[in-house]
Amino acid sequence: MKVHDLKPAPGSRRAPKRVARGIGGKGGKTAGRGTKGQGARDTIKPGFEGGQTPLHRRIPKAKGFKNPFRVEYHVVNLDTLEAFDAGSEVNPSTLRAKGLVAKRGLVKVLGRGELTKQLTVKAHGFSSAAKAAIEAAGGSVEVVPAPWGDRRPPASGNALMNR
């Protein structure tokens, strides 16, 4: 058996209907298109609505501005730090090891919940409420500098952005 001998099983495939091949069978003359008019003639563009302003021109373009240099943080709250039990120092790498923040990106501590432990917290950002609560519990706060230094952050699509 060779490749040119292969055929589908009998009855599994029907031959396509061949229209506009003369009057010898169904679909001769106008080929199922009726008589005259736009539909009987050449192709019509997809999306054409008979002269009405088509949908792609009726809807407005995207408005506004999306800042490509926006910095997004992974958020950790005080109640998460209260439940965190890995010594007295908390930093982005220990949070990543516990699975509390994503593998990449910056970490910010926010002030939801209560903190009673004395912790040294290192992160890229702190809310003022979180900073006050950590220091009130006897801990200390250390801001980790962003990986791009004091210049503007890289544009979106970079590994350090959360997009």
What spatial form do the alpha-carbon principal axes imply? elongated
Count the strands? 6
Largest sheet: 3 strands, parallel
Lateral arrangement of strands in the main beta sheet = 1-3-5
Task: Please describe the topology of this protein.
Elements (H helix, E strand, L loop, with lengths): L54 H4 L14 E5 H6 L5 E2 L1 H6 L8 E5 L9 E4 L1 E2 L1 H9 L3 E4 L20
Parallel strand pairs: 1-3, 2-4, 3-5, 4-6
Word description of this protein:
This protein is an alpha/beta fold. It contains four helices and six strands. It is elongated, with a radius of gyration of 33 Å. The strands form two sheets. It has a three-stranded parallel sheet. Strands 2-4-6 form a three-stranded parallel sheet.
Summarize the model shown.
The chain is α/β, with parallel strands linked by helices and 163 residues long.
Q: Keyphrases for this structure?
A:
15% helix, 163 residues, 3-stranded parallel sheet, alpha/beta
